[in-house]
Amino acid sequence: MTAVLELQGVHTHIGAYHILHGVDLAVPAGEVTMLLGRNGAGKTTTLRTIMGLWAASAGSVRFRGQAIGGPDASATTPDIARAGIAYVPESMGIFSDLTVRENMLLAARAARREEQLDRARLDWIFGFFPALHKFWLYPAGKLSGGQKQMLAVARAIIEPRALLLIDEPSKGLAPAIVQNLVQCLAELKRERTTILLVEQNVMMARALGDQVAVMDDGRVVHTGGMAELAADAELQQRLLGLSLGAHA
């Protein structure tokens, strides 16, 4: 499998804390890779390091063969975004004082005005997240938590991206919204969009994941097929401390 993203021996320090301890990870093109692990394993730090928000102190991060992270890389976070990587942080990162419309326009690199947005793609997004259409002209800060999460995901997919990094998108969402989110990501998967997804929702992980990487203590300790992990209760218990079947 061709890897669109590769991390080799990545270490990340945040202040005095050594968070990542030599992460090795390959994300195959056109597939959904689940990044799983207990709380504090280093999953969010891995995504933020890929995005250049935290600097890798050792090792390398390569996207489409080009170095974007590591001591010798000069790419900034805007450079990484322009290269085709979109990031949906756990905190959502929306602009609360701007309207839904303005948030979407900021995320669309090819559009300066609403008329320049890809209308077919926008309608496709509204099909999964109808609240965004309803509250198009509302300040984003007045949306509910679930609606803000919809907006965070919608901004990342307003234009086709080469790679999506998504951190815990279903956290705190109502089941109906989670189902819409799963359907949206499943459609992106059918279109062969490459996704690296951190997610604690077992149903979502099993439904969407092609590959899986499990982290513990700042390292990737297991890689393989998501279906194989889902079928091996003993491995789940050892790696994650839970049974996916029991949480389905």
UniProtKB/TrEMBL annotation:
Database matches in InterPro entries: AAA+_ATPase, ABC_transporter-like_ATP-bd, ABC_transporter-like_CS, BCAA_Transport_ATP-bd_LivF, P-loop_NTPase
GO terms assigned for molecular function: ATP binding; ATP hydrolysis activity; branched-chain amino acid transmembrane transporter activity
Span of domain ABC transporter: 5-242
UniProt keyword ATP-binding present: yes
Keyword Cell division appears in the UniProt entry: no
This protein's UniProt keywords: Amino-acid transport, ATP-binding, Cell membrane, Membrane, Nucleotide-binding, Transport
Residues of the signal peptide: none
One Pfam family linked to the record: ABC_tran
GO term, biological process aspect, one: L-amino acid transport
PROSITE patterns membership: ABC_TRANSPORTER_1 (PS00211), ABC_TRANSPORTER_2 (PS50893)
UniProt-listed SUPFAM superfamilies: P-loop containing nucleoside triphosphate hydrolases (SSF52540)
Top-rank lineage group of the source organism: Bacteria
Family: Belongs to the ABC transporter superfamily.
Protein name: ABC transporter ATP-binding protein
Organism lineage: Bacteria, Pseudomonadati, Pseudomonadota, Betaproteobacteria, Burkholderiales
